[in-house]
Every structure is written in structure tokens, then in C-alpha cells.
Fold these 2 entries.
Entry 1:
Amino acid sequence: MARHGVYPHDIVPAKSKYFDSGRFGRMFGKLPAFAADTPEIRAALLDIGKAGGIMDAKDKLSEGPVKLITDPTLGVKNTDNPNLTAGFTFLGQFLDHDMTFDPTSSLERQADPEHISNFRTPSLGLDNVYGSGPGGSPHLYDQSAAGRGIKFLLEETGTPGKSDVPRNSQRVALIGDPRNDENLIVNQLQVAFLRFHNAACEYAKTKIKLTAPDQIFAEAQRLVRWHYQWILVHEFLKKTCGEAVVDDILENGRKFYKWNNEPFIPVEFSVAAYRFGHSQIRPSYRANFTGGPGGTPFFAMIFTPTPSDPVDPDDLSGGCRAPRRFIDWPTFFDFKDGNVKPNKKIDTTLSTALFKLPGSVVANPNATSNPQSLAQRNLLRHLTFSLPSGQRVAKAMSLPVLSKGDLSDLKAHGLDDRTPLWFYVLREAQTVENGERLGPVGARIIAEVFLGLLQGDQSSYLSQDPEWQPSLPCIDSSLTGDDFRIVDLLRFAGVA
Ligand code: HEM
């Protein structure tokens, strides 16, 4: 079954309130496409994004998951980013699944973004977690006396204290967005948010002394959303884009992301800039400290093309439940205990495992029309939506433009001065910021869209109370308010 980004249209309920809001649009509507959709350009994009091509980090997968992390000589292109830890990749993926989902456009045909439905509400309100709420999505909520229909339903992995999302009898996750079961790490972030909400319900009951279930739910949901939005502005965005651009937009406003009636997702963001996260993915991870044989750490590849066992594969695919399939967060976020691992730098290479995505991610692959290479899919999607080149976007933003020399590896394809925007954003991060964060064009697009979505959402903390600061406790009790970070959220949720 296809699980991530490639859903057939007919599985979606046609009239669902949950699914039918929003369209895509353009941020730089007047700019022409980077190239016409010709057989030559298609061939060039397939060549650039192919396995073994210039975007393949050429990880020595045969060395196995442990050595790929611990032996630096194997990681020439798998270099450590001192600015971002491994968990930020999956927080980024989780954020994507809160804002945007295009399961219908084709890699073979051009499409007008304004005629393509976004199957997520274009906001950062956690509809991937809450679904349509206790009334509209009762299957997500615990209907027992303890859950009162307002707490989320969770199930056990088989290891005491470690939860999995609920699943139906065929192992399909019962969650607000199916893509949050695409790999084990994003699955466990979903679990963390479900438990965060449940803990916030207890807080609303015991600390705020609310008694009616609907009041408890509403207050817990507000706490969850606002703390999450705080983290994405003050931790995720500032680390990914740099503090200066975030502060500038908050103080002086957005320059490029504007809308008439309500916010939409620009294709320059969803097809290009925000796919930067694909280059942060590592070939393998340490999932936890005790799930391996004899209570040793469980290391695994992010994906293997043909996972060994559908119930408990030896990679980090989602869609399965087994006692070892849980995440210990200190590898992914910095709990100051020396266990954290860094992200891969942002550059124009992707981990080799992503050039042959498994059938659970890309169903019915075809080398030219439905490729298994994530890089090829991203590049072809630029033709679907006629995206402008990175150079034109940089000029339109009055930002420095990369030189042809910076993009000389695209010269053979004639794309060194009209570069697909995703590739451009990655090369800009690599060239201008040494791969530690996004460069000026990528950072500005992403920060404007995130902050614009929050400013356009009447229920966000930036709209309702821009001076608000977090009220839930930090791990370090000497810190409060604006110091609240993802580690504090995970601790409050009871998963770390
Ligand atoms: C293991 C991790 C990930 C995998 C396997 C993965 C895979 C995919 C796949 C297969 C697609 C659909 C490609 C297409 O057909 O056009 C996609 C779309 C996308 N991905 Fe990822 N991704 C991962 C992580 C991330 C991260 C970390 C980010 C950003 C920080 C990200 C951002 C996006 C965006 C913005 C889209 C387009 C979404 C839409 O509009 O439908 N992904 N990803």
C-alpha cells in the first residue's frame, strides 16, 4: 500500500470536511518556468536525480547501520551538521504533514496549483494529530471512562511503557495523517504528540481545575497547539533559517508571501524549498538503547529496498508494531546527556537509501513516470507545477544569485543558470552556510510561509496573543516561558 505522498485519489472520502480544504498557489506567480517540459529536460532531471548520479551521497550501505554512523571515513557525503540534531529532520517531516499533502498531482502531466487540492488545512494547527476532533474523528479518541472521548487512544508496542499509534486489524495506523506512519521516527513523534495532548488534558483538569470534558479538551488543545507553534518559531525556524530572518519578518513583516482571502501553500515552498529536509536524512539511525539483541541498542537503516519481515523489518519503516520498534529520544534531541547525534548537513546530496524507496512509499514504480528515487520525484514535480528557476527567484527577492561556477555540475545539462529551485536551495545552503542552515532564498521562503500561516490562522498564538509565552514547565526548573523547547515537550508528554 502506498503510504507517503502517492495516494490514489479514490481512497479519499469525497465530501470529508477534514480533507477538502485549501488549494495550492504561487508565491512568484509572474516568473516563467525554469524550462519547458520537453523530453530533453525530463531526461536531464532523471539523470541528475538518478541512483549513482550527482545527488547520490554514495553511502556504502553494505557496511551496515552501525558503521554508517560510527565510522567517519564512510561518510564523505554524510557529514555532520553541528547546528541541528538528528530529530530535527523528523520534526520537519511532521510539520510538513501538518501543512501540505498533494496526493493527486501527476509526475507525468503539468498542473495548475490553484486546481490541486491540499489534503491538509494550510495551517499549523495539528490537524494531522486531531483529525476532525472528538466529534468528527471519534475513532482517534479513547472512549473509555478514563479517556472520556477527549484523550487520544494509544496502544502498546510490547515493551512496557512504549506506545504505538492504534492500528486496525491489518496494521493500518488510525491517525490523522497516514504519512505519520511512514517511518518509525515520525510515527513515534505522532505518539509523542498524542501523549502530549493527554498530559495536557490532565494538566487542564488538575492544575487549571476544569471539569467539563469539552472545556478540558479545548484548553488542552490550545496548550498543545501554542507550545508546538512556539517551538517551531523559536527553535525549528531559528535553527533552520537563522535568527535574523525570523526576527526580521516578525518585526518588519512578510515581503513575498501574501494572500487575498486566506493562506494557501505556495508550490515554491511545497515542491522546492521545504523539501530541503530530504537532504538531512541519514542512511541509518540508533532507534533506541535497549531494543537490539540482548538489550543492546537497536540500529537500523532508514529503509532497505526489500524489508526482511513485514511485521518487524530490520529497517526503520513504519506500518509495523513489535517490541523493539520504539524511539529513545536522547539520540535525536539534546537532553544534555551526551547521547545526541547530529543531522546530515544540508547539501545537494541525499542518502543512498532514498534512491530506491520501498514499495510501501512508492507503489507500482516506473523508471520514468513513477520513479523510486526521491530526488527524481522532487525534480520532476518542478515540471508538474512549472516552477521558476532559483536564479529568477533570487533576483525577484533582490537576494544574491549563485554563480554559474557554483552550479558547474549542472552545466552539461544546461541548468547551471536556470536551476530547478529545490536543487538551487540545497546548493545555496551548502555554498553560503556550509550546509548548517538554509541560505538566503531558502530561508526567506520557508520563514515567510511558516510565519504567514501562523499569522493567517485566527486561533494561533501569534494571532490571538503575540506576547504569549509558554506556561508548561521546562526540564530545567530554573528555566521558564520562552526557554520551552522540544525536549521539554517530550518530557512533559512522558515519552522521554
Ligand atoms: C525519511 C524521511 C522522508 C521520506 C521517506 C520522504 C518521502 C517523501 C515522498 C515520497 C514524497 C512525495 C514525493 C513526490 O511524489 O513528489 C515527499 C514529499 C514531501 N516531503 Fe518528504 N520525506 C521525508 C522527510 C521529509 C522532510 C524531513 C521534509 C522537510 C523538512 C519533507 C518535506 C516534504 C514535502 C514539503 C513534500 C511535499 C508534500 C506535499 O505537498 O504533498 N520530507 N516526501
Entry 2:
Amino acid sequence: MKLTGKCTKCTSEEVYSNRPEGPRGERAVMAGPGGSISTRLFIEVYTCLECGYFEEYISNKDLRNEKKISKIKSNWQRVKS
Ligand SMILES: [Zn+2]
């Protein structure tokens, strides 16, 4: 959805995102087992206006921010298959 602009559920192309320029939409994230993480991450939202499905991603910029990511790694649990 993020890459294709197509809804992964209904295949509609009515996909919109808040992916922005500025820090608008930034929000604090999230409680983990070790309490809430004080790091703020920008969350990109992709939503299908046909069926209402939506996905969320951490922005690429934050994903490459080692400080923020190491905080997540040390506070959250890795999901194992
Ligand atoms: Zn859809």
C-alpha cells in the first residue's frame, strides 16, 4: 500500500496518506512493558477511502535514527515467528 498506492485489501487505488513535509502529525509513541517511550516518532498513515483499511509506518527518517530505534529495541519485545 505504501509502495504501490493500491489497497492491499480491496485493490482500490483510493489510497491517501498523511506523509508530509513538516513535523505536523507527529505524535508521541506508545507504552511498552518498560513504561512509555519518551521518543517521538513520526507515524505515516495510509488509508483506503474505499474500504476504510489503514496501515501505519514509522517514517523512513525515524527508521534510520539509531537513537530512536535502539530505544525501541531495548524497551519492546521482538516478535518471533
Ligand atoms: Zn480498500
